[in-house]
């Protein structure tokens, strides 16, 4: 089984805490589109950025993965 980032869970957790705009700003994106593309799977998310997302969402990075 392959472990992949659960983008829907990432989006749901983010929505519980903050808006897309706030998350984008917190992670240093110039516009909300940068983070939006990560949530939609249009851009690849680096391990470093995923670790930042987990920290901002206050979850263990493992919680952002699912098995396929």
UniProtKB/TrEMBL annotation:
Gene3D superfamilies: lambda repressor-like DNA-binding domains. It holds the Pfam family HTH_3. InterPro entries: Cro/C1-type_HTH (IPR001387), Lambda_DNA-bd_dom_sf (IPR010982). Residues 10-64 form the HTH cro/C1-type domain. It comes from the Bacteria. One of its GO terms (molecular function) is DNA binding. This is HTH cro/C1-type domain-containing protein.
